[in-house]
Design a protein that fits this description.
It is a single chain. The chain has 51 residues and is an all-alpha fold. The protein has 2 helices and no strands.
Amino acid sequence: MSDKIDAVVETGQNNAAAGEEFFEPHKDAYADSLFRIVANHNDVVELAEQD
């Protein structure tokens, strides 16, 4: 049973490392996109509140 648990933990750690490796080079672009989405949303809310 312990071997199965160790295998699951190892797989989870490997998946986390692979996800981090994929995300790392793109994090600035994701942050910039998210910032623009929030800014656009705030502009829409502001315009809606003016009417």
